[in-house]
Amino acid sequence: ALLYNNKGEYKKAEILLKDYLKHVPEDGATTFTYALFLSERQRYDESMEYLLKAARLSPDNPRIFYNVAMMYDFRNDKKQAVNYLNSAIKIDPENSDYYLALLNLHVKYQQINESKTLAKEILSKFPDIRQKEDILAILNQ
Asked: TPR repeat positions in this chain (predicted)?
């Protein structure tokens, strides 16, 4: 399926993914792959359905929770986006990407107090983070 997708043969890729999931519906990794495939095709409602299913099937995969959060953000549902990013952080508290994504959401939604609190936490937890200057700018606003 991935080879077909890479070659631009999307119908063949989708047939294989759907067939596989029909036979192995509890495969969280492939469910996630299919969700991403759907998102790439701009079939966002279907993608969200499969992302949420993948999160249930693979509750220890922070990347799935990150993608669910981004889909909720795309839908302007900041509460759910924040909740899912917090879940990703709980699963993988050493990955600065999830903290930065959460910080970006707080900034986007003009949540000043949350932004500053999280910025301090990020700088404390990741003192050598590459985005240090941007994070300091948030603190100095």
From this structure: 62-95
**Residue 141: predicted pLDDT:** 84
| Cα–Cα distance for residue pair 33/64, rounded to 1 Å | 10
Cβ neighbour number for residue 128 with a 10 Å cutoff:
7
Contacts of 86 (CB under 8 A, 6+ apart): 102
R_g of the chain computed on alpha carbons: 17
Tokens for 26?
């509890």
Tokens 């707080």: give the residue: 106
The b/e string for 74-108 (b: 16+ C-beta within 10 A; e otherwise) is eeeebeebbebbebbbebbeebbebbbbbbebbbe
Q: How far apart, in Å, are the Cα atoms of 42 and each of 7, 32, 107? A: 18, 15, 26
Task: Say what the pTM is.
Answer: 0.92
With cut-offs at 50, 70 and 90, classify the pLDDT of residue 36: very high
Average pLDDT over residues 92-97: 97
